[in-house]
Specification:
single chain, about 350 residues, alpha+beta, Aminoglycoside 3'-phosphotransferase, Chain: A, domain 2, 2 domains, 6-stranded antiparallel sheet
């Protein structure tokens, strides 16, 4: 089975440059997998291949041909837990809206698949051959252009008020967690007083004015910003986090800057890439960007705190990753201070 062949570390979040995904590799399904895949999706098993990943079958990513005579693949299929159906539906609705506004985006179908073991959430999209960001200035410029049109389109998103309310509810949860950490060191907190202090002192950064906020992507990383072989423009996918992301647009820009341009690069290269990005996006106020970068990391750490409070196990590597990002933010962003 595919899920048993690869270490779980391969499925870590690609926020760091060193953890960026490699070019996808696919292999045929074995007979047992093929039968299950067909039951869940309705596709013929001999027309499908599975992407090598750490996900345990039947969860994962697949490519499917239209028929036995086809030389190319037509569909990209994602199978995830049925519990994620509502989030996937939300993400696809935003992508369909962006497509209607002329933004390069997938239009996908969502179905509830089932086999003898249970129900699954199945997304079916057009198959796409693509590369990930390779560090070229032309790519950075194209990313700036893409994010600009995404943000412009989302200013009028019909469900913006709902997303605003979702964030305000999440902010209240974070406030309660901040108060708990401030009053005591609970037994579930494993990171010592210094790290606790970083969360408490950084929390006010999340109290930005709602008049400067809008719907944004909320989780831009190497795995969801793709460069298709067949087009000059990148595309942005996986808008699940938008459900709670009513932020200033600088939050998206800060996350992209941090994950694509800063981590793993020297300051000169980072500055060149950011300048190229700014040529595509437009003028950016550096002070707002710097504070937004710290705020997004604080938000991520409070999300991990919420999971821990709910007794949901989170790998220590996730905590360490965001603490490192927070600690390094000032040094890494020194070129922003003009």
């Amino acid at each position: 089975m595919i899920g048993k062949m690869y270490s779980s570390t391969a499925d870590n979040s690609p926020a760091f440059w060193g953890l960026r995904p490699s070019t996808p590799e696919y292999i045929p399904l074995d007979s047992e997998e093929g039968k299950s895949f067909s039951e869940i999706t309705g596709f013929q098993p001999d027309l499908a291949e599975i992407m090598i990943s750490a996900r345990k079958f039947p969860y994962g990513f697949f490519r499917v041909k239209e028929n036995n005579y086809a030389k190319t693949y037509k569909y990209f299929v994602k199978i995830v837990s049925h519990e994620r159906f509502a989030m996937e539906k939300f993400s696809l609705a935003i992508m369909a809206y962006l497509h209607s506004k002329g933004v390069p985006c997938f239009v996908s179908n969502l179905i509830q698949g089932q086999n003898r073991k249970g129900k699954y959430c199945v997304t079916i999209s057009p198959y796409l051959e693509f590369n990930y960001f390779s560090g070229m200035r032309s790519e950075a410029r194209a990313m700036g252009k893409l994010l600009r049109v995404v943000h412009q389109a989302l200013t009028d998103y019909p469900k913006a008020e709902q997303i605003k309310n979702n964030w305000q509810k999440r902010y209240k949860v974070f406030t309660n967690l901040r108060d708990i950490l401030h009053q005591e060191t609970p037994s579930w907190w494993q990171w010592g007083p210094e790290k606790k202090g970083m969360l408490i002192t950084g929390f006010p950064l999340l109290n930005f004015g709602q008049d400067i906020a809008q719907v944004v992507h909320g989780d831009i990383n190497f795995g969801n910003l793709l460069f298709p072989y067949s087009a000059n423009n990148p595309i942005l996918i996986d808008f699940e986090n938008s459900k709670y992301s009513y932020f200033p647009v600088y939050f998206d820009i800060a996350m992209l800057l941090e994950r694509f341009f800063l981590v793993g690069r020297d300051k000169n290269e980072a500055e060149q890439l950011f300048n190229a990005f700014q040529e595509g996006y437009g003028e950016i106020q550096f002070d707002k960007l710097f504070m937004s970068m710290k705020a997004m990391t604080i938000r991520s750490l409070f999300l991990l705190t919420e999971r821990t409070f709910k007794n949901i196990i989170t790998p220590a590597s996730e905590w360490k990753k965001f603490f490192i990002l927070l600690e390094q933010s000032e040094d890494k962003c020194s070129f922003l201070i003009k």
